[in-house]
Write a structure and sequence with these properties.
Blueprint: H1 9-26, H2 28-47, H3 49-58, H4 63-83, E1 89-95, H5 106-116, H6 121-132, H7 144-147, H8 155-177, E2 186-190, H9 200-208, E3 215-219, H10 226-240, E4 245-251, H11 264-272, E5 277-283, E6 294-303, H12 308-312, E7 314-318, E8 324-328, H13 332-347, E9 358-361, H14 366-376, H15 384-393, H16 400-410, E10 419-426, E11 430-438
């Protein structure tokens, strides 16, 4: 069987030349001053203390020269520090943990679809085969409206899911960080498929009575990669607004997007996607440096939307019966592989597997994750967080990355200096990467989504779970 993803290791090597040039341009001032300062230091050491003292006595400075020299030094130092990018810190984050009442074991899932699709047993059998090979476990959760027979995907139910997921994650973030709602400077909410009016960001502002001058953004239609797009947007905002913070909320609302038709390409999301969400606090304040968990190092975004196949490989549309669903193309993984190739040839040399401590991905299922592990030559430990998150929580879209990060922390493996690579794929088609440095050794948390089950993981995930 041919590989799903292309082998792009050779492209990574070619990119070193470009990265070297970029590094030279970005650090031209530093690289110019270092040899000059080194030459001066060598000459001073060669002269000795007596010659230096005689040379100093022979110099004659007047007040104008001293003032001009001081002004020049201050001017150069000011330009240097103003042009230097601000460090962006991830202070902390919180993930939503669904209640056990939302749990959907395999037997319950299949029973519901046998009843809902009783006139099409082939579609039921198809979903069973997908579920058997998905890598999901028995504890994944769906929102209450999907538990009804038939499902009740009303606007009220969708808003209810958004409120419980987003507000729960925000409340946990406030509790963990001590952040007060009035202190939020920037708010970014991303949810791909549910975009009501007023927006979800307005819903958050209304709930917590945020400031009237808050800068708020609501991103939709960007798929599983929207979380890292939000991080990139927050980074840009924090670069131009000093002494400020940003809260990013990543989620996907499942209620209005449960497909009730018979098209196989549209039935796949029903089997894989589950309820979830996360809230993240970013800051550029130096005072937050000491308690921050991570520092943002790189963000690389790749968009293949100019290609027609890439544009349509994840597409929301109506089927022949007029029922709306998300169609996943059979070419999805091949197209995602090309997007990954473009993305990793830029970021790959910066995070070779020898330096990589943790890897997190929003890939759709188990098979694609295995192919990615093989192509990137990642160890089993590198992808353990992704596998176990898929098993415990399912694919929670853009928030999956934070459940995976939380898994590594719950295992006590996140140490100061570790490097974390997050990679996300989304409709369009997009492939986005973010690299973080662990700023301090993370103590094993006593709360969070993994608090009451981490001792059971990792678990063995069979190739096929017979239902």
């Amino acid at each position: 069987m041919p590989p799903i993803l292309p082998d792009f290791s050779n492209s990574v090597k070619l990119k070193y030349v470009k990265l070297g040039y970029q590094y030279l341009v970005n650090h031209i001032l530093t690289l110019t001053l270092i040899p000059v300062m080194a030459g001066i230091l060598i000459e001073v050491l060669r002269l000795g203390p007596d010659e230096i003292f005689n040379l100093w006595n022979s110099l004659h400075f007047d007040l104008v020269q001293i003032l001009c020299s001081s002004f020049f030094i201050i001017f150069i130092a000011t330009i240097y520090f103003m042009s230097k990018p601000r460090s962006i810190y991830l202070v902390d984050y919180a993930c939503y943990k669904p209640p056990v009442t939302c749990r959907v074991p395999f037997a319950t899932f299949m029973e519901h679809y046998r009843l809902n699709l009783s006139n099409n047993p082939k579609s039921v059998e198809f979903q069973m085969r997908i579920l058997e090979r998905s890598g999901l476990g028995e504890e994944t959760c769906l929102p209450p409206a999907i538990h009804y027979i038939p499902p009740a995907p009303t606007m009220e139910a969708a808003r209810g899911e958004a409120e419980i997921v987003i507000f729960s994650a925000m409340d946990s973030l406030f509790k963990k960080t001590g952040l007060k709602p009035k202190d939020i400077d920037n708010l970014i909410v991303n949810c791909s498929l549910f975009s009501p009016t007023p927006s979800l960001s307005a819903m958050v502002i209304n709930k917590y009575k945020l400031r009237i001058n808050i800068k708020s953004f609501n991103l939709s239609g960007m798929g599983c990669s929207a979380g890292l797009i939000s991080i990139d947007l927050a980074r840009d905002l924090l670069q131009v607004h000093p002494n400020s913070n940003a809260v990013v909320v990543s989620t996907e609302i499942i209620t209005p997007n449960n497909y009730k038709g018979n098209e196989r390409a549209m039935l796949l999301p029903n089997c894989l996607f589950r309820i979830g969400g996360a809230a993240i606090l970013l800051s550029n304040r130096r005072s937050e440096r000491w308690r921050a968990k991570y520092r943002l190092v790189h963000v690389v975004r790749t968009h293949k939307g100019a290609d027609d196949k890439a544009y349509r490989c994840v597409f929301e549309e109506e089927d022949k019966e007029g029922k709306v669903g998300i169609s996943l193309s059979k070419d999805l993984m091949a197209i995602a592989g090309e997007a990954l190739k473009s993305n990793i040839t830029t970021i790959g040399p910066l995070i070779s597997s020898r330096r990589l401590s943790t890897f997190a991905s929003t890939l759709v299922g188990k098979q694609s994750l295995e192919e990615l592990q093989k192509n990137l030559q990642l160890s089993a430990e590198h992808v353990e967080g992704s596998r176990m998150t898929l098993h415990r929580f399912g694919n929670t879209s853009s928030s999956s990355l934070w459940y995976e990060m939380s898994y590594i922390e719950a295992k006590g493996r996140m140490k100061r200096g570790d490097r974390i690579w997050q990679i996300a794929f989304g409709s369009g088609l997009k492939c986005n990467s973010a690299v973080w440095n662990c700023h301090r050794t993370i103590k094993t948390p006593t709360d969070g989504p993994w608090a009451y089950c981490i001792d059971r993981y990792p678990v063995h995930i069979p190739e096929v779970v017979k239902l």
